[in-house]
UniProtKB/TrEMBL annotation:
It comes from the Bacteria. Keywords: Methyltransferase, S-adenosyl-L-methionine, Transferase. SUPFAM superfamilies: S-adenosyl-L-methionine-dependent methyltransferases (SSF53335). One of its GO terms (molecular function) is methyltransferase activity. GO terms for biological process: methylation. This is Methyltransferase domain-containing protein. Pfam families: Methyltransf_25.
Length: 259
């Protein structure tokens, strides 16, 4: 891919454009799980939760609730928080176990629940674009944890240029989504200004021909930056480990709240 030619002009057919900051669009939320596919990375996070015997878990950026539902199956108490009401509506409609509490909000205002563990998947870490927003998230998460509680999160490495893999990995480009019909996805990388990378997902719904564009920017953080930020915000890093199936691409880090 020639990164010098990545900036695109908008599609004339787009009838709605949604920024990443709060992806609060019902049509995007309704098809999100179908296009995400098999989230095998979530099993790695769940395994760490088991390893640390966490019984009260804060799921930050829970989205449509796939991880929260997985964790609650083991009779855990899960507090799942997300800034998107549309995504939360999808999560609630799944009928997750009774141990899940769904909250509208973000990491900075996470409730003080005395959680044993807070989890942020790598794709959630990437939405914090500024140092200020990331610092506020770490502060809020630390406040939500009990003393000695754990933060389990992930990052994807810049040197693997994962945005190129992602742009190439839209197979199939169209899916038949139950209850919605055929939906086509066109993914573009629109700008690369490391550590920031911008994307546009355009979903076209065959049922009525409507197209919805999801335009967003992600920030890719590296291990030295994460280590420094954790120390500055009251955490002690314990481990970095590869996500099975994603060696050298995505890693999970485990940090303990220190007092």
């Amino acid at each position: 891919m020639d990164e010098s030619s990545l900036v695109r002009t908008p599609f004339d057919a787009i009838v709605d454009a949604v920024p990443y900051a709060i992806v609060d669009h019902p049509r995007i939320a309704s098809i999100h799980d179908a296009f995400e596919g098999q989230r095998d990375d979530l099993l790695a996070y769940a395994a760490v939760v088991d390893e640390l015997n966490a019984r009260v878990v804060l799921d930050v950026g829970c989205g449509t609730g796939t991880l929260a539902e997985l964790l609650a199956r083991e009779r855990r108490t899960v507090v799942a928080i997300d800034p998107s009401e549309a995504f939360l509506a999808v999560a609630k409609a799944k009928g997750a176990p009774s141990g899940v509490t769904w909250l509208h909000g973000d990491a900075a205002n996470a409730p003080e629940v005395g959680a044993d563990l807070a989890v942020l998947t790598a794709n959630v870490v990437e939405v914090f674009l500024t140092d200020e927003d990331w610092a506020a998230a770490l502060t809020g998460i630390r406040r939500a944890l009990r003393p000695g509680g754990f933060l389990v999160s992930g990052i994807r490495h810049l040197d693997r240029r994962v945005w190129v893999d992602r742009a190439a990995d839209i197979v199939p480009a169209a899916l038949d989504v139950p209850g919605i019909g055929r939906v086509q996805d066109r993914l573009e990388v629109t700008a690369v200004n490391l550590p920031l990378v911008s994307f546009r997902d355009t979903y076209t719904f065959a049922a009525d021909g409507a197209a919805v564009a999801w335009e967003y920017t992600l920030r890719f953080r590296e291990r030295p930056e994460i280590e420094s930020d954790l120390t500055d915000h009251g955490f002690r890093l314990q481990d970095f480990r590869d996500v099975p199936g994603h060696p050298g691409c995505e890693v999970i880090f485990i940090a303990e709240r220190v007092d």
